[in-house]
User: What shape does this take?
Amino acid sequence: MLAQFVLLALFIYDWRLSIVLVSGIVIVTVLLDRPIWAVGCMLGARISATATTSFFTIGKVTIGLFEPVLLFSLVALCLKAMLTQKQLIRSWPWQPAFLAYGAWSLMGMFWCTKFSDGLKDILGLMVILATNIVIICFIEKWDDVKLMIWFWIGTCIAVGMLAFFGDSLGLTNYASQWKASSSGGRETGLGQQPNWFAMNLMFIIHSCAAFALVQKRPRVRWGLLFATLFIFFSMMTSGSRGGAYSVVIGGVLVALGQSRFRSWLLGFAGVGVALMAVAYFGDMGDIGKGLNRITMNLDVIFAQDIRGLNWAACIGMFTESNGIGIGPGGYIENLQKYSDWLYHSVYRYPHGIFWGEVAHHGVPGVMLLGAIVVSVTLMARDTIRYTKGTEAEVLAWAMPASMAGYFAWSFVEFSFDEKPFWEWLGLYTALHLVARRAWENEKAGRPSEIPKWTLKL
Assistant: This one.
């Protein structure tokens, strides 16, 4: 009866809340037997969640598709831990640097400009930590890692198809929501800003192509290669120059690792050039406009001084705070004194993770951000060493390649807590822990769970 009254009260307040709660109870019950599916659903929700799929807001926090799934996953994880005495507190290579960064951010609340904005940033860090705990605790086997890669690929294909066919059939049209897309030629996916739409699809491109190499069945291999091209093409319709450059940067990094990757990269580049040629010489409507935007007018990436004005404001905030930063949040509140035009525009954000750290967290924040980058780099080096000669080697190279492309891109776009980078990093961290355990077992004379494999097809 108590549960019925709670559901009735939620229904009266907002009928969607009661549906979410009942669905969550069902999901948690099902996921107790297959908790790995909770992670897959969470990753899929993270990639596909946009402002158009948000249910409501609590203060300045938007509640959409991802947040309930994360909550249900955490509940399932805690119940699983209680029933099986599963260890929840685990360590991973970049954890100390991230916790130190979080501690400095929390200290910044004492001098932040606006408490509500600062609290929103702190909540974002807590979500990152919770998400990675779920991923790392549930993904414990090589088969789990592969299943999550399939989830990621499937979600990106679904998003690309919904965007392509929805716009083609006139079922969806989100261009008017974003000034960058208002003139046409820049795909927004399911209602995301074009650069964010490109970023969501970018992470899986290298790994999808690499994953194809270790497939024994030719149909699956060629299907994955076709999926790679489709996701790449969907990303390019966003017209995002940064997305295109990040794919190239990551591809070059992969090519440095293996001669087989180099030959595949050249073939992939040839297909990409062919797509650009068709878009340039053919009449492909808005899709052609998006592709042409990447290849033409490369010199206007810093047009109208939008980025320069934001970066100058970041440096000003850094200087006036004596190098400790203005604290979490508060960038918009401080921006008006540096540029009134920028303050009243839609471009009022730091335009780059590094610049955001300079403004908000000063020298300590930049140093701790560097410590996270170094920790992830060393983890990637060790993961490649652990997976040498196994079928996980391709992902050990391809997954950090995407992160390297994102790192370069992050100097002109995005914020520290941007999705889905941290989910991708969490998945790679899980691969690292699985590979390390397999490597230790092999050294001890025990069988390794990751099959041997060579790059010679």
Notes: Confidence is low (pLDDT under 50) at residues 298-303.
